[in-house]
What does this fold into?
Amino acid sequence: DGSQIAFSFQGDIWSVPTSGGKATRLTLHEGYDGYPFWSKDGKHIAFSSNRNGNYDIFIMPANGGFPKRLTYHSANDIITDFTNNNELIFSTARLYRQVEWDSEISSVSTDGGTPERLLDAVGNMAVKSPNGKLIAFVHGWGRVDREKYTGSADNEIWIYNSDSKIYTQLTDNETHDMLPKWADDNTLYFISARSGKYNIHKVGIDASGKAMGDVSQVTMFKDL
It folds into this structure.
């Protein structure tokens, strides 16, 4: 509901009111807990942790408590979305790392069970639209810490339409476009270096998964 922020600090999950105030520590473990995501009803937080040797996915009550482990693979599982239907989307490398650089995109229920591969395409940072019909994800091989990179290994955003089974490339340039986030079923925000500095951008998305209108820049950070 926007009243609190969950974040990782020194390898544990914390929460703090968006109005400011005291931060509350929610996990305490010698492993590294990160990548927290809220459930849509605000009652749970899912996160990735390497407390068992590699990153697996866990879920716990929003006010803390004993985390429930949901994945058990030797590959790293990094959560990227907590959907409206209690599905956790994550990036992993269970099958194709020997032939593909990109991760696979999989999902697992908050109740546990066997994870399933969500998309045939490789990629990462996958997020579902609120209605569940469109999946935005990132495809590319460039290191995101290289903000000034331009070239064919840049990250680009794609949209998958789960009804038509069609993939649409949303961005196409030589700079990094990444971290897509849905504001609603027809608005997508993302980070882009197209201005020469990482800034937030947004674009309208129609029901098929194609861009509506031009990309607009939201933040205006510049090099000093």
